[in-house]
Amino acid sequence: MALLDIRQRTGWLFGAIVVSHIILISAQVTTKRGVPVLQEVTFGAFAEMQRGATSAFGSAREGWQNYFALQEIRRENDQLKQEVTKLRVSLEQERSVAQQTRTLQQLLDLRSATSFETAAAMVIGSGADPEFRTITIDKGTQDGLRPDMAVMSPAGIVGRILMPTARAAKVQLIIDRDAAAGVLIERSRVNGVVEGLGSGEELGFKAGMISLNYVPSSADVKPGDRVVTSGIDGIYPKGVPVGEIQSVERPGGEWRIRVKPAVDFAALEAVLVVLKAPDPPSETADDGKR
Amino acid sequence: MKALAVFIAIALALGLQTTLARFVVGGSAAVDLVLVAVVAVALTIGPVGGMLAGSAAGLIQDALSSGVIGIGGLAKTIVGFLAGAFGQQFIVTAALPRLVIFVAATVLHGAVFMGLYYVLDLRAFPSPWKPLAAQALGNALVGIVAFGIIESLPGIVERRRSRRGRR
User: Fold this and answer.
1) Please, which of A23, A77, A142, B42 could form a disulfide with B83 given CB 3.0 to 4.6 Å?
2) CATH of domain A118-274
3) Residue A238 scores a pLDDT above 70
4) CB distance A29–B120 less than 8 Å?
């Protein structure tokens, strides 16, 4: 219908004039609230546009802030993870230091309790060959260490200095197959000699055990008896714990006594080296096996 | 030339309307000469001329009255546009169609004019139909007469010229 076809130029012109008149009328007419219609309509329309723009802007800003917040949280998370890792490492170090401190404290206590001159040393390594039960300590001849000096820990006897160098020394553990020490059973005061068993698998014994030999046939020996050094070997001071009798057998009339060492050699961290040997005993039970 | 003629027609209508209104009983004119001029222009020129003439004449009329400027302009714009568009689509040279167009244009103008005032709560029209019908009839009569005078003017001028030539 051409009469109302506003797609034509005339239609557009008509629409423009009508709108102009409406705007003109609205500018003069006030609403019941006393506000001009044009102002109210314009303000209302503009307010909606502002609301939409503000909402869109707010959403965009919120999204942007959330994005950055997530970035920040991720960064913070990474930092916290690193911090937790560092703290864990630090905690482990602190625990290690605390353990070391306890060990050293025990050593100090032992050193204070003993009457002979000692030097503390840290274990810095173990033997390269499992057949030879040795450890390496961080003190050597510069610190006054000499071969055959006794090495002990707060728990008991450890071994003896085998080969000292200037700043380190190899220590033969009491559980080594070639090690031996004069001992006595604390309860019955029976003398004997403990010898290491080495790896012990081929002997059918549990590794790390020591054997108590040269015990008189009439001796009173029971499992659970504490074994201490007798001091007659000229190396180890008297009365230092060696271990506890684990099993007692007597096949064919000969003693077969196994002693569990008092020292946990796997957890050995610090030791005391007896610098000045105790006075030699009047009688020697050690037959030379060292 | 057309624009000048339109301007003169509108100015004449406004002049007559403003001078004759005070002679009408009750102070309310039964004829809207400006509306008649707008419809006449629209039927003669077309919708564009009709709506421009209606817009301008209505705004001037509003400005001269105490009402809201734009309501009369809007009403006359719509009337001028539709009258012009109708005049382009249909043959309205006879008296009856013109009468109908003038009546319809007056009713439409009154509906828009009074409707806007009513909607905007600016003025109340307790019984608008009787004066509106009177005005429609008056406008139609004036319009037909005016159209007749306008259309006969060129012939009268021509005859006078030919008489002067014989003398």
Assistant:
1) B42
2) 2.40.10.340
3) yes
4) yes
The model's pLDDT over A72-88, given as tens digits with 9 standing for 90+, comes to: 888 899 999 999 999 99
By the 8 A CB rule, do A113 and A105 touch?
no
Task: Yes or no: say if A219 and A268 are a contact pair by the CB < 8 Å rule.
Answer: no
B48 to chain A: which residues are within 8 Å by CB? 10, 13
Which residues of A fall below an 8 Å CB-CB distance to B?
Answer: 2-4, 10, 13-14, 17-18, 21-22, 24-25, 28-29, 32, 37
Q: How confident is the model at residue A229 (pLDDT cuts 50, 70, 90)?
A: very high
Contacts of A13 in chain B (CB under 8 A): 48, 51
Rounded to two decimals, the pTM is 0.45
Distance from C-alpha of B18 to C-alpha of B24, rounded to nearest angstrom = 11
B27 CB-near residues (< 8 Å, 6+ apart): B21
Mind listing the domains of chain B with CATH numbers?
2-166 (1.10.1760.20)
Of B38 and A45, more confident: B38
Neighbours of A200 (CB within 10 A): 18
Report pLDDT digits (tens) over B49-93. Answer: 999 999 999 998 888 777 788 999 999 999 999 999 999 888 888
- The three-state secondary structure class of A247 is strand
Any bridge partners for residue A248, and if so which?
A257
Residue A283 has pLDDT above 60, yes or no: no
Residue A204 has pLDDT above 80, yes or no: no
Band (pLDDT 50/70/90 cuts) for residue A129 is low
Contact across the interface for A3 and B52, Cβ inside 8 Å:
no
Domain ranges for chain A:
118-274
| Whole-angstrom distance, CA of residue A62 vs CA of residue B47 | 54
Question: Nearest CA to A194 among A168, A144, A145, A158?
Answer: A158
The Cα of B153 is separated from the nearest Cα of chain A by a number of Å equal to 30
Tell me how close the Cα of B142 comes to any Cα of chain A, in angstroms.
Answer: 26
Which ipTM value was assigned to this complex? 0.75
Inter-chain contact B121–A22, Cβ cutoff 8 Å?
Answer: no
pLDDT value at residue B104: 95
Cβ contact, residue pair B89, A10, below 8 Å: no
What is residue A278's predicted lDDT score, i.e. its pLDDT? 56
Smallest Cβ distance to B69: which of A18, A22, A24?
A24
Q: Which residues of A touch B68 (CB under 8 A)?
A: 25, 28-29
